[in-house]
Amino acid sequence: MNCALFLGAVLTAYGLATGVTQTPCSGLNCPWTTSRATLRPASTRPPITTTPKPTPTNHTTPKPTPTNHTTSKPTPTNHTTPTAHTTTTAHVTVIPSPTPHTDPEPGKYNVTQGNKICLKVFSSIQIRVRYNTTHKQEWGIFYIHPNKVKPSGTCGEVNATLNLKFPEGHLSFVFKRTPKSFLLVKINSSITYAFPGTKGQTVKATNDKMEELSTPLGKSYSCSNRSLEVSEFFWVDLMKDHIQAFNFSKSNDFGPVTSCPQDGNHVVAIVVGVVVAVLIIVVIIAYCVGRKRNNAGYQSI
């Protein structure tokens, strides 16, 4: 009996805690009938913490940052790289300005092998070039100034070469020895120059089939003005020149002079001119003397 009462008290307490009620029954052996109560939460409002709403930060994460757009754009410095084209102006500075038309000073050039001279040139040198302008062709003159020349050369058994290098280009002469004489057989030249009416031109010419300035061995060649044709548009003028190749004396001085035909013609012309002038003076004097005698023969009446 005590056990049944204790069990009943426990079940009653459990029913109060769980919402299960006990219906009264008669007798000690009546069965317990239970009715399940509906469980309700303490508050009808849903808890905020259990709602699966996304946080606002989830929407901002997929957005690209502004820095992503700026990195894909080319930097402005890429557009400034074409300024490298300004380097083409360097070609203009290489071209020398026109040289004033003044008579060039003569240069003295010796080509030696050891202590022995094989070629000696004393001359003023100018180059005449036919060049193209916008409307027509012109002849330009280029003077070689000795103070701007770097001479060099070679001596051989048969050939002697003189190379003249200057800021505007170069000019070379090749002399050849024959059994009885020496002569000029080749000229090679190239100049880059701003002739009047042009922005600058490079002119090249070579003639390796020349037979000029022929002179007996042991003698020197001299001429007041000698023009040498390298090509139809390129000429080299030697003025007041004195040249000898091979067979020098022990003192390395020039040998006896052989003048060019042009200078010989000038001497003949000068002699003829002097003779004609003397004849004219003699005729005038004879005329004056004869007239004076005729006037003295008449007497006044």
UniProtKB/TrEMBL annotation:
Residues 36-109 are annotated as: Disordered. It comes from the Eukaryota. The chain crosses the membrane at residues 267-289. Residues 46-96 have a biased composition (Low complexity). InterPro entries: Lamp2-like_luminal, Lamp2-like_TM, Lysosome-assoc_membr_glycop. Residues 1-19 form the signal peptide. One of its GO terms (cellular component) is plasma membrane. It is found in: Endosome membrane; Lysosome membrane. Its main location: membrane. Keywords: Disulfide bond, Endosome, Glycoprotein, Lysosome, Membrane, Signal, Transmembrane, Transmembrane helix. One of its GO terms (biological process) is establishment of protein localization to organelle. Disulfide bonds join 223-260. Residues 270-299 form the Lysosome-associated membrane glycoprotein 2-like transmembrane domain. Residues 104-248 form the Lysosome-associated membrane glycoprotein 2-like luminal domain. It is a single-pass type I membrane protein. Belongs to the LAMP family. This is Macrosialin-like protein. It comes from Callorhinchus milii (Ghost shark).
